[in-house]
TrEMBL record:
Domain of life of the organism encoding this protein: Eukaryota
Residue ranges of the region described as Disordered: 1-26
Organism: Salix purpurea
Keyword Iron appears in the UniProt entry: no
Protein name, entry field: PROTEIN ARABIDILLO 1-LIKE
Keywords: Repeat
């Protein structure tokens, strides 16, 4: 599980905001100008330089560049460029594998994501693979894993996790043991039962096995583990039902064991002491911790120094970083309340140390842990300010931004996610902006990798919540980038679309930014999302963005631009029928803002807006304050027109407005009273107000509302209700009018 904070802000109704732009007149300082790039003969570069440039590209871009000319075709086929592939962030199926197979003869290291990619590995024809790392392997079966093992007999390292490999059994572990005799590292998470037969097969066939990890299992044969005499590092983190008394006796006799990870298990203190006192190697390694007890938060830095001066400690330090990164991510995901003090005193510092690891997967997990442990409530965009600011104060923002600059897409994605979540805190957001984070995130949002672009857009979404950052995002080219994301990533990419629309919604609250959004084609893009996207999060943010664009009134032409966009009003009207309250709320808000324009009012009515909004008002009595206010507000705006006012009465709009006028919330009963005031101008509506019990409700508002505007609207509505034009309709007119007139005057 990973957490990503989704920032949601209310509509902006302010009309005259100023933004302070940057003093820089040259946004391209420090970059090659386009003319210089065009004049370069890239094929004339030295081979080693060109190959180095190729190495910074993902496999798709390498293949595309290789297809441009014969020179690049030869360079792009260099074996050194294809000794490692990270396929986690790209679609990798059998067809893609077959296309890559000719370049994969020398492939040594492969990282993949999910079951479909696992099935495709066989088609790569990379029989010399030494290392395979699989992520999110929940759907991988024994058959698939057995076939992978049978085709890759040179395999030295196999890692599957961190989520549970629920469909893998001990049968596949036996096949791995038999087919991969050179195996040195085996790490599998979530195999329910690891039998003694499977472990003994590893002991028999894999004589070079140095590291074994059976994590998150329900049962592991602890006696059989004692036969793994070559193992130096053993992890059973999160494993259940271990017999610790017998296990400690057996494992303490493992001749080469130097590292044992039993985190998140129910191991007893006596078993720990027995292991520690009985194992010569564990005791020796434990003595190395003596010098760092006074400053435990710097433990990993200490180990890194030890590793640099004593190469014999390299494997130990590497393993310690690996298990710490797993452990911290797991507890960050669960986030138990009793570990609050741990995060403040040690945990945050450990994560920042792990960001500086030489292991890419450790750095990724550390960034993911930071993104996760700061979150209190991801749905309501709440982070722990103390934790977030602790990361900032200890240099974490700069470390994360440095990782975000990496050419490795895994690091880019995880670092951008951490920056995004931290930026919910206003102090951290300022630090991110001050260090140049806006430019970095804007650059990452241009990535052809969807996950990188998604997390970067999320960062811009959260940063754009601050008024002081809107101008900087616009200056960095962020508005154009966000609009382009909507056109680039269409259906099926809901995460990136929601974040891009959310960021544009925040930016649209600023007058200057709203005009730039329109110039960049943002109105069309947002209407396209409102019309065609079925994901509710995207619909909500698109509607919010359109509402904010329409909120500027006479300051710019965005209100009219929304109306002129084909299908815009119809889409917003349809969204008021959504099953998701947030979507209905934002759609109603957009229609409210649009209704201030005369032409919009008639167009909304023609699109079925009156029927939709009356229905919304009738059904929102138990909904949020914001939805009630916006439903009443939209009807208020539409009711300025005589035809619309009469139509609202005919559609049954009077009764729900009276009900909303009885609300205890000032914003709600204020807008409802405003709508009733407009409706009361017409005799048929005035009669409906009287018959529907509106008079007592309006009198109550006149005497008790805390809102001066609500009291005024209620008084005006009462005045119109008992105007002389309604006398012929009001039963017992003079008597009722007189009594109510007295109330009105008081």
């Amino acid at each position: 599980m990973t957490r990503t904070v989704r920032r949601k802000l209310a509509h902006s109704k302010e009309k005259n905001k100023e933004i302070v732009g940057s003093d820089s007149d040259n946004p391209d300082d420090g970059c090659l100008c386009s003319s210089t790039i065009c004049d370069l003969d890239w094929t004339a570069l030295p081979d080693d330089t060109a190959i180095q440039l190729f190495s910074y590209l993902n496999y798709r871009d390498r293949a595309s560049l290789s297809a441009t000319c014969q020179t690049f075709r030869l360079l792009g086929s260099s074996p050194c460029l294809w000794d490692s592939l990270d396929l986690r962030y790209h679609k990798f199926d059998i067809t893609t594998a077959q296309l890559l197979s000719s370049r994969s003869k020398n492939l040594q290291k492969l990282r993949f994501l999910g079951g479909e990619s696992a099935d495709a590995i066989i088609s790569l024809e990379a029989r010399d693979l030494c290392e395979i790392s699989g992520y999110f392997c929940r759907d991988i079966t024994d058959a698939t894993l057995s076939m992978i093992a049978a085709r890759h007999m040179m395999l030295e390292c196999l890692q599957l996790g961190p989520d549970a490999c629920e469909r893998i059994t001990s049968f596949a572990i036996r096949v791995i043991a038999i087919c991969c005799p050179k195996l040195k590292r085996l790490q599998i998470s979530g195999v329910k039962v690891v039998t003694g037969e499977a472990i003994n097969a590893l002991a028999k066939h894999c004589r070079q096995l140095v590291e074994v990890a059976f994590m998150e299992s329900d049962s592991v044969d602890e006696f059989a583990l004692g036969n793994l005499t070559s193992v130096q590092f053993l992890s059973l983190a999160g494993t259940k039902n271990l017999k610790w008394n017998s296990a400690s006796c057996v494992w303490s006799k493992l001749p080469k064991l130097v590292g044992l990870d039993v985190s998140r298990t129910d191991i007893t203190f006596s078993s720990v002491m027995r292991l520690f006192l009985s194992s010569q190697y564990l005791k020796a390694v434990g003595s190395l911790f003596v010098d760092i007890t006074e400053n435990e938060s710097n433990m990993l830095s200490y180990w890194r120094k030890v590793k640099s001066t004593d190469r014999s400690m390299d494997a130990i330090a590497t393993w310690i970083e690996w298990i710490f990164s797993h452990f911290l991510l797991r507890i960050a995901e669960n986030n138990p309340k009793e570990l609050d003090a741990f995060w403040i005193k040690q945990g945050a510092a450990l994560l920042l140390d792990l960001l500086q690891s030489s292991q890419e997967d450790v750095q990724e997990r550390a960034a993911n842990s930071i993104a996760t442990f700061v979150v209190i409530d991801d749905e309501n965009a709440t982070v722990d300010a103390q934790r977030a600011e602790l990361v900032m104060q200890n240099g974490g923002i700069r470390l994360l931004l440095d990782l975000a600059r990496s050419y490795r897409e895994g690091l880019q994605s995880e670092a951008a996610k951490a920056i995004a979540n931290l930026s919910v805190d206003s102090k951290v957001a300022k630090a991110v902006a001050d260090i140049g984070g806006i430019n970095i995130l804007t650059g990452l949002a241009r990535s052809v990798n969807r996950l990188v672009a998604e997390e970067a857009a999320g960062g811009l979404w959260n940063l754009s919540a601050g008024e002081e950052h809107k101008g900087a995002i616009a200056e960095a080219g962020g508005i154009k980038v966000l609009v382009d994301l909507i056109y680039k990533w269409r259906a099926g990419n809901d995460g990136v679309l929601e974040r891009a629309a959310g960021a544009l919604a925040n930016l649209a609250a600023d007058d200057s930014c709203s005009m730039e959004i329109a110039v960049a084609g943002g109105v069309h893009a947002l209407v396209m999302l409102a019309r065609s996207c079925k994901f509710e999060g995207v619909q909500e943010q698109a509607a919010r963005a359109l509402a904010n664009l329409a909120a500027h009134g006479d300051n710019n032409n965005d209100n009219a631009a929304v109306r002129r966009e084909a299908g815009a009003l119809e889409a917003l009207v349809q969204l008021t029928f959504s099953q998701h309250e947030g979507v209905r709320q934002e759609a109603a808000g957009a229609l409210w803002n649009l209704s201030f324009d005369d032409k919009n009012r008639e167009a909304i009515a023609a699109a079925g807006g009156i029927t939709a909004l009356v229905s919304l008002a009738q059904s929102c009595s138990n909904s949020s304050q914001c939805l009630q206010e916006r439903a009443a507000g939209a009807l208020w705006g539409l009711s300025v027109s005589e035809a619309n006012s009469i139509a609202i009465g005919q559609e049954g709009g009077v009764a729900p407005l009276i009900a909303l006028a009885c609300s205890d919330i000032a914003d709600v009963h204020e807008t409802a009273a405003g709508a009733l005031w407009n409706l009361a101008f017409y005799p048929t509506n005035a009669l409906l107000i009287v018959e529907g019990g509106g008079v007592p409700a309006l009198i109550h508002l006149c005497s008790s509302s805390v809102s001066k505007m609500a009291r005024l609207m209620a008084a005006l509505a009462l005045a119109y209700v008992f105007d002389q034009r309604t006398e012929e309709f009001a039963p017992g007119g003079p008597f009722i009018r007189g009594n109510l007139k007295d109330h009105e005057l008081r």
